[in-house]
Amino acid sequence: xxxxxxxxxxxxxxGCTDATxxxxxxxxxxxxxxxxxxxxxxxxxxxxYTSVMGETSNTFPxxxxxxxxxxxxxxxxxxxxxxxxxxxxxxxxxxxxxRTQTLTVKLGxxxxxxxxxxxxxxxxxxxxxxxxxxxDVVIPAAASATGTxxxxxxCIPFTQSYTHPAGSNLIVEVVNTSLVSxxxxxxxxxxxxxxxxxxxxxxFSATGENAILVMRGGLIMKFxxxxxxRPVDPQSKDECMKGGWADFEFxxxxxxxxxxxxxxxxxx
Length: 268
Description:
Shape: elongated
Order of helices and strands: EEEEEEEEEEEEEEEH
Low-confidence stretches: 6-39
Strand content: 35-45%
Helix content: under 10%
Largest sheet: 9 strands, mixed
Radius of gyration: 20 Å
Number of domains: 2
Structural class: mainly beta
């Protein structure tokens, strides 16, 4: 039976207008003050939970006041090194009411993993982390037993993108400086499960230098990366000939020629 754990790890994010299917390329993300779109590729970490729900749920760190929190993920699970946002998944057992929290989010590389994450926050990084967001977020209300594997309902679009170096694992750090905690659990995996290749460290102080506890398991997070740029458009029919249509990502020569003649783009 799935359980709720107060020591399971969540993360800082913002309310999405709609849940999206895995691999979808458009997501509407809302901060407390602005509505905007981020077209993005997606990767769910740990990857074993892309299509299945986690065994537990957690409220750390996205809805627990005065908390410093780190969670480590395998770098091999990072699909695109450029990350522009993160999402959390609605739980399939527990729900909660809408809450506003104040969060600072950092991402950085590490040589450590879920088996040896340390208690000193600074030492866990192998290079200086990048602050990608700070401000208020709105964690949306969730009815009990409504979460599904595609229901990432709480997202935070970064104000600063992060580029993850090859060969490193990834640390997500969240500092919650809210004055009041909320009870808004999100889906998480249990450290006893083989696919739960993540661990977290946390301190009940936003300024703490050392974690009071390091343990395996944590939130299921979805990482958003920007879509690759559209290909350059052909300027003449000649560029469509002799296989040139493939360079512009058309499915065949006829579509490429049609674009030149009519402006109709079959690639979109």
